[in-house]
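Please fill in the sequence for the structure shown.

STRUCTURE ENCODING:
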């Protein structure tokens, strides 16, 4: 039983891994989902109510709008008075200074009968001043004139203008002593008081701020009650103004009631089903349309992790502050998947992720529309990274789409261009800047997942690379053949919309296995002598066939990407080494198996590998042509490729008959140009 179970696990390990991957990604996604239920109605400001007339399912309070709350806060701030503290200890300090300095300013001998009268009169003036309270010099009140004065344990309202100001001291003293017998001492009292008077009224900034904060926190977010069964909005009515605010209030209350302890697990289950559907749909797409990717757990994991990253990052931002949603560089997802795989997969994964996020983000219709359009722009644009300008142009295009789309939605909702928020425009610009980080991110992915991008392909296309230089030195004929095939493959790939750079690089390396036994291949033989003369057809066929496996080994040793190695493995498919196969048939003394003369495959599984097979066969066989004309070349190309079609060499790749005919035309044209027909120069 245990052994059978273990064998089952081994036989189905890939499927089990993918199930585990779907479950893991779903759990991770649900973990980041918002903690709350979802309102069962979807509505947008400025759009008609698409459902039947809505009645209040229960009593609920109307939430104040942001504008209403802002107005209420401003009114509170305008009405609020600042808090000041009366320091009673200051007068005692001033009184002591008065006693110590009186004789220095009032020039009377202590024996003079008027000395004590002047002393007592000045003291009474001080008492009068401090009974009112002294403000600091140059104090500016930023609040209302009416303030709160805290004196001891009591709090009173008072006009700040009633306090005594030091800058008014001279005029006040002149006025007080003008009708007194001490009129001649006005300047002396002023000089003395200016020297000793200290403010005893102080602004309590921290206390005032705490009071204001407390008042602001106590502002009720609600206004009014909508009773149960009241009509909220009728079918076809535009969602605007008051009914919009009532709907938002109902949505908030509904979702808060929904997220109860009882419903928690049901909501989690709903989120989980949604996440599983997302990743299962993506996996089915890969299985049906990208079978070569489906067979690679590493690549499937890479795709899933990128989708999870986008969904998780967006939900985190929404939970933190939904206003920053449009700053998230979501278009990095299709850009990366297009770079490493193909545009169709990139767009599908992007749409799947966006539809999932549409369930989470506010203004979901607007979000989904803008992101899908931006994703389409990414897919349709030229983003080959070997041309650095392409990425900047693409990012500029998606930012423009974002801005234009946002302005359009604003006009629909608000009916005015003045309502366009420049902060949102700024978020789109930030989005574009963050999208540019796709380039270093692609480099990191290349190293972490052993993937290949256009930049890597461009580096590999350098004929001065060590491996190609070694091929040129040891097998110059093969090197020249590879260059010719690379030119043919690149042109043909361009004609059918395939990856031209990938096709060229694959062609450059497809025959590197011939490095091991270069003299056994005709293009490297410098004389009529062939080492095959000493070998049986089976032995010769084995050497020829082994250049594929040798090439794979050399490629892996030199750390070539798997996408390039695929060209080495598939460029002969399951065809036969016909020369030696025919020789074995003609030699009746040799017993052989047909498989001894058959390449081990696999067959080409992409447009690029299929193009290489056609270009390689045609170029190699074209060496047998002698002074051909256009008809001969046409028949020659058609016969070779038709035979490959007949043998079903292209049955596992998504190349159409129309594509094959296009490739034929390209190869015919190129061979015609090669053989045509230079004029013969006079001797």
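FILLED IN BY: designer on duty
SEQUENCE:
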């Amino acid at each position: 039983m245990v052994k059978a179970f273990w064998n089952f696990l081994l036989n189905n390990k890939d499927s089990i891994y993918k199930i585990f991957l779907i479950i893991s990604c779903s759990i991770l996604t649900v973990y980041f989902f918002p903690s709350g239920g979802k309102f069962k109605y979807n509505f947008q400001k400025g759009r008609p109510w698409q459902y039947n007339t809505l009645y209040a399912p229960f009593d609920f309070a109307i939430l104040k709008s942001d504008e209403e709350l802002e107005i209420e806060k401003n009114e509170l701030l305008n009405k609020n008075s600042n808090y000041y503290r009366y320091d009673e200890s200051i007068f005692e300090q001033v009184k002591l200074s008065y006693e110590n300095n009186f004789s220095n300013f009032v020039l009377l001998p202590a024996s003079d009968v008027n000395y004590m009268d002047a002393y007592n009169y000045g003291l009474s003036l001080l008492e009068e001043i401090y009974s009112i309270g002294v403000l600091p010099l140059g104090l500016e009140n930023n609040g209302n004139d009416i303030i709160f004065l805290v004196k001891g344990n009591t709090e009173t309202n008072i006009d700040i203008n009633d306090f005594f100001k030091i800058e008014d001291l001279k005029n006040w003293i002149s006025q007080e002593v003008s009708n007194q017998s001490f009129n001649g001492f006005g300047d002396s009292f002023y000089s003395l008081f200016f020297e000793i008077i200290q403010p005893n009224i102080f602004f309590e900034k921290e206390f005032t701020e705490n009071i204001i904060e407390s008042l602001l926190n106590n502002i009720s977010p609600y206004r009014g009650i909508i009773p149960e069964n009241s009509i909220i909005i009728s079918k076809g009515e535009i969602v605007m103004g008051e009914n919009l605010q009532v709907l938002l209030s109902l949505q908030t209350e509904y979702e808060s009631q929904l997220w109860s302890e009882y419903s928690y697990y049901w909501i989690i289950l709903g989120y989980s089903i949604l996440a599983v559907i997302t990743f299962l749909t993506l996996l089915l797409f890969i299985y049906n349309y990208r079978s070569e990717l489906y067979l690679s757990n590493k690549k499937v994991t890479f795709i899933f992790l990128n989708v999870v990253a986008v969904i998780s990052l967006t939900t985190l931002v929404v939970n933190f502050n939904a206003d920053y949603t449009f700053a998230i560089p979501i278009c990095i997802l299709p850009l990366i998947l297009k770079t490493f795989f193909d545009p169709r997969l990139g767009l599908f994964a992007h749409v799947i992720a966006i539809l999932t996020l549409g369930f989470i983000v506010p203004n979901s219709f607007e979000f989904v529309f803008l992101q899908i359009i931006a994703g389409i722009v990414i897919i349709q644009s030229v983003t080959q990274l070997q041309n650095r300008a392409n990425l900047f142009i693409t990012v500029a295009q998606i930012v423009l789409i974002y801005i234009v789309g946002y302005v359009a939605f604003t006009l629909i909702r608000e009916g005015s261009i003045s309502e366009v928020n420049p902060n949102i425009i700024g978020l789109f610009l930030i989005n574009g800047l963050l999208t540019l980080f796709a380039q270093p991110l692609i480099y990191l992915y290349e190293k972490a997942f052993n993937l290949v991008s256009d930049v890597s392909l461009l580096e590999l296309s350098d004929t001065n690379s060590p491996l190609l230089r070694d091929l040129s030195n040891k097998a110059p004929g093969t090197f020249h053949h590879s260059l010719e095939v690379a030119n043919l493959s690149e042109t043909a790939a361009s004609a059918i919309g395939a990856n031209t750079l990938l096709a060229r690089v694959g062609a450059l390396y497809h025959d590197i296995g011939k490095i091991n036994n270069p003299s056994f291949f005709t293009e490297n033989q410098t004389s009529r002598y062939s080492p095959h003369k000493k070998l049986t057809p089976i032995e010769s066929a084995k050497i020829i066939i082994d250049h594929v496996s040798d090439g794979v080994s050399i490629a892996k040793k030199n750390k070539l990407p798997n996408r390039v190695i695929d060209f080495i493995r598939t460029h002969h498919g399951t065809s036969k080494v016909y020369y030696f196969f025919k020789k074995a048939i003609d030699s009746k003394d040799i017993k052989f198996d047909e498989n001894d003369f058959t390449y081990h495959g696999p067959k080409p599984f992409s447009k690029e590998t299929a193009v290489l097979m056609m270009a390689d066969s045609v170029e190699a066989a074209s060496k047998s042509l002698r002074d051909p004309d256009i008809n001969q070349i046409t028949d020659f190309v058609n016969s070779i490729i038709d035979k490959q079609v007949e043998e079903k060499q292209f049955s596992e790749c998504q190349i159409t008959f129309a594509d094959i005919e296009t490739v034929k035309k390209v190869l015919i044209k190129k061979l015609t140009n090669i053989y045509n027909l230079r004029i013969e120069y006079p001797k």
